[in-house]
TrEMBL record:
Transmembrane segments: none annotated. InterPro entries: MoCF_Sase_C (IPR005302), MOSC_domain (IPR052716), Pyrv_Knase-like_insert_dom_sf (IPR011037). GO terms for molecular function: catalytic activity; molybdenum ion binding; pyridoxal phosphate binding. Pfam families: MOSC. This is MOSC domain-containing protein. PROSITE patterns: MOSC. Gene3D superfamilies: PK beta-barrel domain-like (2.40.33.20).
Length: 187
């Protein structure tokens, strides 16, 4: 299975940003990723945490949530449950197709387009705010495995290692970290 993860090649379906702290982000033709900072012009850009709940806890924490990815396959799943979700509406910066984001280990590098490199730091931890967007959506993006462990399906977070412009249609190549692999945890 891990070899399958390493051979994945996906694509960028949509890119989005928001200059202010809004739940949804607006789709744009391209975004610029800045090493150590995140998405240029996005409210969550910076070396320290920008998510309001994290800032309230400790504003000096490193920003491990510079870029938010969601797989468009989740939108397909949610549609079958009666939800209508479009790229950017769940706050992601990059909507992907063809990559099992949730199955990647911590430290996986995503090579996006011609230059950008993002390292996956962990899972997005959806909060109750998601139900303000569409009622019942929080429980739809949470699940449990056969052992009763919580599964968070609302995407993954990462940090920018190398600058680059990201456009719709750009390829995404997966590079797994050295073993032993560490499973994704919420960040």
């Amino acid at each position: 299975m891990v070899r399958d993860l390493a051979s994945q090649v996906g694509e960028v379906v949509s890119v989005s940003l928001s200059e202010t702290h809004t739940f949804s982000k607006r789709p744009v033709p391209s975004i610029r990723l800045l090493a150590g900072l995140g998405v240029e012009g996005d409210a969550h850009m910076g070396t320290t945490v920008k998510h309001r709940s994290r800032v309230a806890q400790d504003p000096t924490q490193p920003n491990l949530r510079q870029v938010h990815f969601i797989h468009s396959e989740l939108f397909d799943e949610l549609r079958s449950g009666g939800f209508c979700i479009e790229p950017g509406q769940m706050g992601e910066n990059i909507t992907t197709r063809g990559i099992n984001l949730l199955g990647l280990p911590t430290g996986t590098k995503l090579y996006i387009g011609e230059q950008a490199i993002v390292e996956i730091t962990g899972l997005r931890n959806p909060c109750a705010q998601i139900d303000n967007f569409q009622s019942g959506l929080l429980s739809a993006v949470l699940d449990h495995d056969e052992n009763g462990n919580l599964i968070r399906k609302a995407g993954v977070m990462g940090i920018v290692l190398t600058d680059g412009e990201v456009l719709v249609g750009d390829p995404i190549r997966v590079s797994l970290p050295a073993k032993p692999y560490r499973p994704l945890e919420r960040v």
